[in-house]
Amino acid sequence: MTLKPVSINFDDKWRELRQQMELIVGEQSSEVSGMIFHEVCTARPTPFADKLFREVSAFFSRHVTALREGILEQESNLLPGYASRWSTFDAGTGYLHMVFEFYNKLATKHTTSGASFQPDDGSNTPMPIMTLAYKRWREHCFEPLKTRLLHNILSEIEKDRNGEDINSSVILTVVNSLVTLSNDPKAPLDLYKTQFEAPFLQGTSSYYRREAAAYIADHDISAYMRKAEAWLDSEQLRARKHLDSSSYSSVIKLCEAEIVTAHREKIQAECTRFIDQDAREDLTRMYHLLRRIPGGIDPMLVAFEQNVTAAGLKEIERLSDAAQKPEPYVDALLVLHSKHNDIIRTSFDNDNQLIAALDKAFRSIINDTAKSKSAGKAPELLAAFCDQLLKKSNKNQSEAEIEEKLQQVIKIFKYIEGKDIFQKFYSKFLAKRLIHGVSVSDEAESMMIAELKAVCGYDYTTKLQRMFTDMTVSEDINKTFNEFRSNNDIPLNIEFSMLVLQTGAWPLGSAVQSPFNIPAELEKSVTIFEAFYGKKYSGRKLNWLHHLSKGDLRATYGSKRYELQSTNYQMAILLQYNNEDVYSYSQLRQLTNLNDADLKKTVKSLVDVKLLNLDSGAEDVTESSLLKYNRAFSNKRTKIKITTAVQAETKEESVQTHKSVNDDRSLYLQAAIVRIMKSRKTLSHNQLVQEVIVQLSSRFQPAIPMIKKSIEGLIDKAYLERVENTLDKYNYLA
């Protein structure tokens, strides 16, 4: 074998080559030598390249024409016949293209060099084997048959949509032939797109427009959505079985337009009913269908938000007076939030837009005082609910359950606009828990503070954390004090301990304390501790909070001994009965020096537990009341806590706390305005108002009139001034 040019007889060589090509394209043989092409194209003295090109072109024209005639002989099986012959032709052509590499290179060389090549059809474009073969198939087989082929393909696909069995592999082979024949680099897939995809999409649109209109007219929306879901799923599968991948998105968008978009108003109209009925499957289908189209779920967002808001307000209205109590109110919110959050999770794939709608609805329920009477009380009620959870008296739940409930409470807390109100009440409740030693656990308390810190930042919980620091420091002070007494041989005759609390960290100084005469039994302990503390911490002043102090008394009634846990006020009254059995109200006032409000409340608590008796027939404690020691007192328990009634939050204390919050808000507002103006120097009124709202939004939502009042106050104090000749612009004054 040699690659040198040789002299040949073209007719003999072509006859041999043609026979081999006929066997290959008919898949009857795969044995062929590319040397024949080489010899023909390099022959001496003159190569036969142009003649070879013409003969190859004519060969494919004759061969494809013969294949077409064979297909037409089996017209009842047009698609299988076409698919079978195309598969054979395509495989053979591919093998020829691979074997006759020299021929392909020569064709390409002619193209790039501008050499002339004149096939038998008059074309001036030389082509590699595969390109030429596909061109001839398109001209001599597809073009004459395309009308019947496309009609049969579309008919078969419609049969498939109607549930009839079809040969999907034949359909795919025919469709893929159009993709293969669309080999023009300037217009890729042109044949497939124009001859097949366009009529296919038109037929698909007509089919689903007709079917969807008929089905929704005869069925309810639930049934229609199930059918729509099935249609879309089956059409997606059908596209993957029968179409080129470039058509997938076009088919699905068209189906969505006819099945969903055309009927979306009817589908959207059922959203409220499905939410009311908690129809999770229907909601899931509705969401998955509507989110396919632009703006499809927008009405769902509105309906969902309105439904949650209405359900929340209705539930609070149903609770009526109970909604003013912490547990029913917060439990109702938690149940409502859990239900709708679960709907979002199970039916709406945790869609952020639905989560935002839920958040908006809860902000309205909790904060909008125009819609709910309980809205203004939400921060206080939530703080009281946390107090109930974190007290030792909460024996119905394990520590793990308490922590889980607190995490749920934080979800509600995030919606509260008056977070400063919550903070004020929470700190008061925490102070009482710590002072009276009734916290369920330090771990639960620390977890709650950590959650609050995560939501509102470090500054929000600084005082709460300082309260725990004071408790630890107080333990050390008590230990040091006891060592001091032991070293100096100072007996007290009673067990005595104290908590030393920083005024700035504990919310204990807002209420006016009653004057109080310390019982003689406590005077020595108080005096010695004051001397010890003053020597150890010079310059510090102790202010005794007797209204928050407590002590244990041992009392004997007959042969039975009791241990009574009382407040200092209760203790001071009870200790008087070591001297006399009967005292008038005025005598007790003189002995204890308590004001009327605290004295009446304290005496009433002792009457309620039957340690003291009022005059016969009297119900209320008055100026003329006589209070007698009840020597017949009896109780099943030997340890009795009589502090609960006087430690409970009163309406007056609640009002005082709200007043304190408003005072704090005024200071926060002024501080925020000064910070902003110091940074910006000059601002318009509207800009200043907006920046103040943004800066304070993590604590509370300041009202516009309140901001205006603070600005006027700062102008009066010469922190700000109005820009000359303007009414709505301010300068900062250093």
From TrEMBL:
What name is this protein filed under? Cullin 1a
Pfam families (alphabetical): Cullin (PF00888), Cullin_AB (PF26557), Cullin_Nedd8 (PF10557)
Organism (species): Capsaspora owczarzaki (strain ATCC 30864)
| Segments passing through the bilayer | none
Q: Which GO terms describe its biological process?
A: ubiquitin-dependent protein catabolic process
Question: InterPro entries recorded for this chain?
Answer: Cullin, Cullin-like_AB, Cullin_CS, Cullin_homology, Cullin_homology_sf, Cullin_N, Cullin_neddylation_domain, Cullin_repeat-like_dom_sf
Its lineage reads: Eukaryota, Filasterea, Capsaspora
Keywords assigned: Isopeptide bond, Ubl conjugation, Ubl conjugation pathway
- In the UniProt record, does the keyword Ubl conjugation occur? yes
